[in-house]
Amino acid sequence: MKKYILLLFCVLFQSIQAQEIISGKVVDKNNKPLEYALVSWKGTEIGTETDSKGSFELEFVSDAILEISYVGMEISQTSTFPTKTNLTFTLTEEKALDELVIKTNRRTTTRSLTSNTNTMTMNSAELLKAACCNLAESFETNPAIDVNFSDAISGSKQIKMLGLTSPYILIAEENIPTVRGASQAYGLSFTPGTWVESIQVTKGAGSVVNGFESISGQINTELIKPATDIPFYLNLYGSTDSRFEINTHLNHKLNNKWSSSLFIHGNTRVAKNDMNHDGFLDNPLGNQINVMNRWQYIDQEKGLVAFLSARYMKDDKQTGEIDFDKKRDKGTTNLWGSEINTEKFDANAKIGYVFPDMPYQSIGWQNSFSYHNQQSYFGLNEYNITQRSFYSNLIFSSIISNTLHKFSTGLNFMYDNYGENVFNYTANNYDRTDNSVGAFFEYTYDNADNFALVLGGRVDNSNRLGLFVTPRVHLRYNPWEDAVFRASAGRGKRLANIFAENQYLFASSRTFNINYSDGKAYGLDPEIAWNYGISFSQGFHLFGRKAEVAFDFYRTDFQNQIVVDLDQSARTVDFYNLEGKSYANSFQFDMTYNLAKHLNFRAAYKYYDIKTTYKSGNLERPLQAKNRFFVNLEYQTHETETGGSWKFDATWNWLGKQRLPYTGDNLAENRLGEYTNPFSTLNTQITKVFNDRFEIYVGGENITNYQQNRVILGADDPFGSNFDSTIIYGPIFGQMYYAGLRFKIK
């Protein structure tokens, strides 16, 4: 693999050297760099945009006119070049009042050269490249996140970052932690994709401002803001797996300070599907209603901004054998069935104040209350959990002597009250209350040119974790133009909610065994891990078109981990404190390239080395592919005068072999091999945009029609000792096609 990567670099740089390049800078009359200025050869399709420093590189075309344009500026043209490097073009403001509109295609997923963390930002255009019915399905086109089904019963999707599952990721909504505790298994499906404005995916140790629990990374979702929302939005969706959705946004601006949005989401699946003919539903039947009201207040003169929101969600799922009737068969051994019924309410308030005379100084206060109630059963197993949570975070930001030295400091408080009842052959109650108060300080040195250093630390006192310190550090260095090197290191600590995070295992005949110690939750110790990482990205021009290559490497070392052991027996799942080593190494190389006008290419290769010391030895983490490839192609036709266009998108994923859990003590017909076979999937979508108000789309998932063989072990005897629906590594349903429309009133 190293040989091929080296060969790829050689080809790239030979291609660059073969082209004659012209480079320079575009500025205004005050010598201020102009970002996104359009630089092109007149009469050709060869052009580019300037970067944040106003710089550009472009393939040189002899005997042609170079044209530079920028909104609100006079167009500059020249065909005389004293040199082909370090040119400076100064644009002046337009003298006339005529409007000049320049439209360019910007990337839907971007890395910032000035961000101090390895963060990829997905904007709303990226989310529209797939159905994105909910947040869990919004990462299909992002190579930083791995998306897998968790089991053959619930239909839920699980995400991984750096090879570690979602409990190790701090998942926040507008920087308030949301998917945690009771909502770990299904919480991502409770945020509709149409509500999302952008998603920031940060690898490795995150900021100490947001807490101490993150280990492998952070995902922050920004919702659509009432102040910038449109008056009306409608999205309708239907698919061949009988899933139907409606999303409606209503927005009203009361005055120049107050705005309000009402978001309404509903989905249902009413038809029964059994594509693999094993007698079990491939997808659960169900309904969800999700309503949120948001208010935004802005007073720019006084430097005040506030967000208030409240949300109610009810989600009901039923699955199991095709003929299961919950009124008749629940609690019996007639037919195997399952219901997962969740009710959730949350409210939050965020207030921010920027000092009018000191724009570098601000104070913010975040408060959030959440109530989560899940009542569920899986055959004869029952799992019920209620969580009441309160979160408060006070943040003060300012400078030390000058803007080169910045800091953020503050206090936060977290409270979680759990009511948890488990019936797995015997009934057990695991009620508990967790609370913690912490103080943090984060110092940033940024020379505003090519170097930044972030040193952060926090001290927390928890009723279960005691008094402890969380250090984190980030470094950014821009060695030359369009290049950035980053490094990070940090510690994370968390209490594992072993049943909520692994409740898919209830859909099996396994007995849950806990090896109790003197720990504070379930008799187990908290999880503690260190994460270290480096990344490098380089932007350049290849044949006069933008390209970028990047790589990153991260290692997570666990000081303690709650080991979920499926290898002792196919009859049990064992939970115990780590005794030995557990680590996760993650390497990713990716490239983006503008192949032609309106045609963008993105590819990635990922390698994982993840091992844990189990009672049976040091083994690879089960159901984790060591090697993965990702390719995405997107094309958009030129927009018409009314804003119409065609959009085409295709994503191909290839997964290498994965280790399977031990099944050797099952009957011969219910035993699996040691590893899976590699497989690939292909997703596509075509969108017809008629104008800026109306568009329709059609798409397909898993068009290669790959289906996992032997999805449910012991399906013919679901109450027997061999029954297991949790060993899922690939698609179950096969091909799925969908269609929908989007309508806006602006």
Question: What Rg, in angstroms, do the CA atoms define?
Answer: 27 Å
What do the pLDDT scores average to? 90
Ranges where pLDDT stays below 50 over 5 or more residues in a row are 1-18, 96-104
The chain-level structural class is mainly beta
The major pleated sheet works out as: 22 strands, antiparallel, barrel
What form results from the Cα inertia axes? globular
State the total count of DSSP E strands: 43
> Approximately what portion of the residues adopt beta-strand conformation?
over 45%
Helix fraction bin: under 10%
Count of discrete alpha- or pi-helical segments spanning 4 or more residues: 4
Head-to-tail CA distance between termini: 51 Å
Topology:
Layout: H1 2-18, E1 21-27, E2 38-41, E3 47-49, E4 55-59, E5 66-69, E6 76-78, E7 87-90, E8 109-111, E9 119-123, H2 124-127, E10 146-149, E11 157-161, E12 164-165, E13 169-173, E14 176-177, E15 196-203, E16 217-223, E17 232-239, E18 243-253, E19 258-269, E20 285-299, E21 304-320, H3 326-329, E22 337-354, E23 362-378, E24 381-400, E25 402-423, E26 427-429, E27 432-446, E28 451-462, E29 466-477, E30 483-494, H4 498-501, E31 511-514, E32 527-542, E33 545-560, E34 562-565, E35 572-577, E36 582-596, E37 599-614, E38 617-620, E39 627-636, E40 645-655, E41 679-689, E42 694-701, E43 736-745
Parallel strand pairs: 1-7, 13-16, 31-35
Antiparallel strand pairs: 1-4, 2-3, 2-5, 5-6, 8-9, 9-15, 10-11, 11-12, 13-14, 15-16, 17-18, 17-43, 18-19, 19-20, 20-21, 21-22, 22-23, 23-24, 24-25, 25-26, 25-27, 27-28, 28-29, 29-30, 30-32, 32-33, 33-36, 34-35, 36-37, 37-38, 37-39, 39-40, 40-41, 41-42, 42-43
